[in-house]
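Example 3.
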Amino acid sequence: MIHIIILAGGTGTRFWPLSRKNQPKQFLRIPSDRPMLEETIRRVRRLVDKKNIYIATNKIYYATIAKDLKRLNLPAKNLFFEPQSKNTLGPIGCLSWRIYEKDSKALIVVLPSDHHVRFEARFLKVLLQALEAAKDGFIVTLGIKPQGPQTGYGYIKVKRKAQSTKRKAYEVERFIEKPPLAKAKKLIKSKRCYWNAGIFIFKADTLLGGIKRFAPREYHLLSRMKDELGVEQFWPKLKNISIDYAVMEKTSKLLLLPASIGWSDLGSWLALERLMKKDKYGNILRGPCLDLGSHHIVAWSDKQLLATIGLKDMIVVSTPDAVLVCAKDRVQDVKALVQILKQNKFDRYI
Amino acid sequence: MIHIIILAGGTGTRFWPLSRKNQPKQFLRIPSDRPMLEETIRRVRRLVDKKNIYIATNKIYYATIAKDLKRLNLPAKNLFFEPQSKNTLGPIGCLSWRIYEKDSKALIVVLPSDHHVRFEARFLKVLLQALEAAKDGFIVTLGIKPQGPQTGYGYIKVKRKAQSTKRKAYEVERFIEKPPLAKAKKLIKSKRCYWNAGIFIFKADTLLGGIKRFAPREYHLLSRMKDELGVEQFWPKLKNISIDYAVMEKTSKLLLLPASIGWSDLGSWLALERLMKKDKYGNILRGPCLDLGSHHIVAWSDKQLLATIGLKDMIVVSTPDAVLVCAKDRVQDVKALVQILKQNKFDRYI
């Protein structure tokens, strides 16, 4: 049986002021008018029954997620609230154990909840190919063709010759985490590199075997978290470690399957430009907006009337308690802004 | 005794979204942090006792003005609420009557409440000069040296030779209301033109005599408005007419006294630039604002955190229910914007 683990514990405020400490990207209604987490679930609903969809998130998002998921009607017991953030090994390992206990032949798809996939049919097709390979004992990761030398992503370099040519998958040479620009440029020139989208497909016992071998201490802890009491007791002892580092970089069972699925991690307000429909002036207006003569702007309002006059290449975001007006070529500074907010009297706006 | 009539019934939304239908410019805290009406009162407090300060306003501003004036502690009976807007003859005539009834030798200074005066000591000095001329039976208006060929102002052309050279005052040749640009340019070249600031100084009986002579019908109506009942009955019959048109343009008793008092009518958001202190980047930030690398912007926030990044020559105004982001060179379009709001579902934001 196929099971889905959705990772929804991420933080991040690159969509500030829309994204906040208590409302990170996965809960935002971008680029569609549904929360990204909800879109992630809908994307795989044709593949699995909802009783087989699990969500791991941080307990600080309890209220947010409860509201969103009421509509989706998922079983409450499928929500796993991490007592503290422990990167990805914790939630993936813990939920894989629970799924394995119920279904020893379980196939699992791990999906981040804050990415956008444009070509959904193609995405499902690739997942089905990956699941075939997973049945044979491989751990499959989807590889995204780089669109440029991004320094914010993890890269995966594959071996030149795909020794296991099953379904166009490549064996993996190594992982490169967030390379500096020069390195990133070199990587994308090599043609053997893909972005790591954090999507993994495996049999439950394959993964647990990998954890047992490469992270035996964590395996032992995870094996004792079969109920809430176990989680409460042993979760704090887990290392803060990613599944990539703990298992994927070490196992020989990893295959990379290239996936042309229109993937985007929506890294900033600018990413919306590639995904949302613009009006004839190149503007994206969402919410109660009124514009006179602007070009190539993103104007985004929750509730307030947002009036724009004669702007060019700007991002304007209005929420009930905070407003951002940012030149497009300065959008990376939103992160710096949030850092500044953290350090002073404005921290309630984060 | 000197009495002050402050006209505070004006409408106007050029400072939208700060200014609204129920909160026009005279109630805004610009450019200081006190409402303009309050600044107007404070400006003349050294000249008169507060029991001699009268305010005429529209009854739709009752709530706004009551709140503001509580702090100033003016006698409630000095507030005159116009049942409908009837331009300036109505309120000036009516209050002049009431003042005359109490003090037949009363000297009156009429002041708009939505103008800024930078040089207050000089302003008081000019008023005292004007009051001297008023004692002699003249009606004095202060003339502002034009700063440019503004088309939105009324101009007053004086006679080349000041026949009555009392205190540097000029006799008036004619009034020119809101001339087209070419005409305005010609006017300011002539060196004999001043802007009409709507400030008048006269003896009560001089003005009432003027109304009696040049607008006898209105005089009759005004004479019957000595109490609330009279106002209720006769106010609606008043013509919608300005004191300028009804009396000033016709009387031979008018003198213009040039006044270099740093006058500004604060015609748009841009006007703040000349009056408020800028930071070293040329920015004016008011309220909870946080800026990264902007230049020459006005950022104005009531309550919300307003974050600006990398902007240039912009006006950004944030209020609890509406936000404006406007290129400085398009500030005149704020008026057009408000017109559009009026015509559609957004009219609650006006």
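The radius of gyration of chain A is 21 Å. The mean pLDDT of chain A is 93.
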